[in-house]
Amino acid sequence: MPLTRWLAEYAWLPDHAEPTPDVLIEAEDGRIVAVTPLVGGGSPAAGVEVLGDATRLPGLTLPGLANAHSHAFHRALRGRTHGGRGDFWSWRDVMYDVAARLDPDSYLALARATYAEMALAGITCVGEFHYLHHGPDGTPYDDPNAMSAALVEAAAHAGIRLTLLDAAYLTATVDGEPLAGAQRRFGDGDALRWAERVAAFRPEDDHARVGAAIHSVRAVPAEQLATVANLADRAGVPLHVHLSEQPAENDACRAVHGCTPTRLLADHGVLGPHTTAVHATHPTSADVGLLGENRTGVCLCPTTERDLADGIGPARRMADAGTPLSLGSDSHAAIDLFEEARAVELDERLRTRRRGHFTAAELVGAATVAGHAALGWGDAGRLSVGDRADLVTVRLDTARTAGVPPVGAFFAATAADVTHVVVDGRTVVADGRHLTVDVPTELRDAIAAVTS
Question: Is the confidence at residue 445, as pLDDT, over 80?
Answer without folding.
Answer: yes
